[in-house]
What we know:
Blueprint: E1 3-8, H1 13-24, E2 28-33, H2 41-50, H3 63-67, H4 78-87, E3 96-98, E4 103-105, H5 109-117
Parallel strand pairs: 1-2
Antiparallel strand pairs: 1-3, 3-4
Helix pairs in contact: 1-5, 2-4
Amino acid sequence: MATYTLFHNPKCSTSRKVDEALVAAGADVETVLYLKTPPTKADLERIIGKLDDPVGDLVRKDNRFKELGLNADDYTSKSAVASLLFDHPELLQRPIIETSTRAAIGRPPEDVLASFLS
């Protein structure tokens, strides 16, 4: 079984669900509490490079996004997303599951877990 890195926010029920499922499956998981230990710009660029989803999907478009006065133009390129999430890690969509070869946003958790654990 692969080694997984989980970029996790324990306050998020979806993130907790993915964490619990990986542990229950006996996966080797390195958990990164990204709000306490934000990913480096190199980490973000690595994740983006492995992601099949559109890069803009990594950005949460919630109240904080609006408070910062951001819009769609702020997350159109890989480098813009890496810079934005480096400056504002609270905008990182969670959870993110990463292996040595791929990364995915853990939403919906059932689909992503089935893909990673099969």
